[in-house]
Amino acid sequence: MARLIPQRSTCLTQMTQGEKRFSERLEQKLEDDYLVWYRVPIGPRQQRPDFIVLHPRRGLLVLEVKDWTSESIVQADRRQLALSTARGLIREPNPLLQAHAHAQEIKAILEADPALRQPTDSRDAGQLIMPWGYGVILPRIGRQQFVEGGLEAAMAGHRVICQDEMPETVEPEAFQQRLWAMFGHSFPVALSYPQIERIRWHLFPELRLTSAAGQFGLFGDETTAEAGPLQIPELIRVMDQQQESLARSLGDGHRVIHGVAGSGKTMILGYRAMHLARSQNRPILVLCYNPALAARLLHVVRQRGLEDRISVFDFHRWCQEMLVTYHVPVPRRDGADDRQAWPEAVIAAVERGQIPRAQYGAVLVDEGQDFEPDWYRLIVQMVDPASKSLLVFYDDAQPGRDSPARPAFSWKSVGIEAAGHTTILKLNYRNTLEILAVARDFAQTLLQGAAEPGGDSLVSTDSAGRHGPLPELLRTADAADEARQLLQMIRREQAAGRPLSAIAVLTRSTADSRDWQGRLEAAGISARVAHETGGSSLYLEGATVKLVTMQASKGLEFPVVLIPGLGTMPGPGEDETEEARRLYIAMTRASERLIMLHDRDSIFSRRIRQAINQVQEQLGSGGG
Ligand SMILES: Nc1ncnc2c1ncn2[C@@H]1O[C@H](COP(=O)(O)OP(=O)(O)OP(=O)(O)O)[C@@H](O)[C@H]1O
């Protein structure tokens, strides 16, 4: 079955009867390796052909669908058609001309990339590496009517599929023959997966990921598509097909998306938030659990100038905002903020009608695994009941912030109608294979059997396959030597051209972060501490090493992660499994390089050493 993007079920309401029927045929009659896009904007001019069909061994086809009947067509020529409608006589451009124009545009976009052109020494030098074609679908006009009505003079017969050529019973081969007859010039081709990714990168600028923009690289790129000559990066990074299909299929209603750590959940949340901000006027709320992640997301929203449209908060901060805005006393205890009591205070104020319901056009929740059932009951009420636009991203495998014993709940019990819409993103793009393998090997032994509400094991994540250096474990003589070696590592990265902002030191506690900040600054290295309760300034100051506790690092990522203090893990009186979870989260924050240090041996340092040796053996010396 062909993959239709967006998923057919999500765009049926926008489709004409003819489009519904034709899209069904495409799904039924084409094999798995066909990609089909329905009214997805292409290139810088954001034109929307009805259908684009791409097949690795056939090429690319652009199709327009018209639900006209032969009776409604009064006159037709190569340029336009006159149609008799309820609104009187109207003129429409010839759809074949439209399809041709879209196909030409696609061809021009793709041919701008030398990697998608025939080699200079070939007969067709400079031409696109694959055949391309265009055509028209007339789901309400039979072939005989088409011929007898003289429509052939307006549209070449071989470029048209008529009603009687697309019944449900049509043989797949016959249906496909009709499609491939629409090519002007066919030749053998076998597009590789990277070539298809490249084609998607060119056609759909909004799916591009830029490494320059870091973790949420997606957001920066759309605008650059129109400005200046096209810069094609050496490494093409684009949402994968499953991510794209998901991102484009999101609509109104409640929706829960499951995905492993690093599988692009936050990226898709960002895509959706930006899309909503452009397409509707009501305020949009993005919620997560971790203040440092909220700070990161807010930074990105600000960069795009969308902070007036999209509010970003960690859940407790949002509760505080609600209480303050609606003059509800903010709970305090012993002279200090009582954060834990804020959600309850908001829930009660909403019940009393002091805080209004339905304040947002859409609510998007990241880190949904960390939210309590009561919080969901509250959030559901905050969404406009007309759209019910609530999107929750949930990581079954990442441990919740408290313990695996936290009671599971059903979505229905908290008012979320998410049945029948389960999507699972399984590929981890964040970590290199080496980092993920070591983290997994470490966690496997210590967290054996630990499973989360979704039933997935903590360590079931698959790597997207990117290679990098093996994680390093440095044994130091004592605490002073540990500090010296950590500084040395930062300097090594700096010397290799790595900006300080790409480096994070992950610690056991905020007090430890402060200690490290003192040591780094004494050595002339600027460093910022992320506070447990609000790290909003963390990302504003660029050239600084980030100091984050392991617990607060969830959802974040940094090219280089340094973890000191492994020699005291697990800490005295700490639960070993909990500590292992924390360390696993910390290790998997690293997207390129992971360096751990210990000044004495501990259960964890020994396990990590074994894990590194094991992975080194498996992957061959050097780790690729
Ligand atoms: N298709 C892709 N190709 C390349 N990189 C990708 C792709 N999808 C996601 N990434 C990158 O993977 C990293 C992780 O993405 P993201 O933070 O959205 O994951 P996540 O599922 O939210 O993770 P977590 O649950 O741990 O917060 C980011 O650097 C993102 O840019």
TrEMBL record:
GO terms for molecular function: 3'-5' DNA helicase activity; ATP binding; ATP hydrolysis activity; DNA binding. Residues 14-129 form the NERD domain. Pfam families: NERD, UvrD-helicase, UvrD_C. It catalyses: ATP + H2O = ADP + phosphate + H(+); Couples ATP hydrolysis with the unwinding of duplex DNA by translocating in the 3'-5' direction. Its EC number is 5.6.2.4. One of its GO terms (biological process) is recombinational repair. Keywords: ATP-binding, Helicase, Hydrolase, Isomerase, Nucleotide-binding. It is an enzyme of class 5 (isomerase). It comes from the Bacteria. The keyword Cytoplasm does not apply. Gene3D superfamilies: P-loop containing nucleotide triphosphate hydrolases. This is DNA 3'-5' helicase. It comes from Frateuria aurantia (strain ATCC 33424 / DSM 6220 / KCTC 2777 / LMG 1558 / NBRC 3245 / NCIMB 13370). The lineage of its organism: Bacteria, Pseudomonadati, Pseudomonadota, Gammaproteobacteria, Lysobacterales.
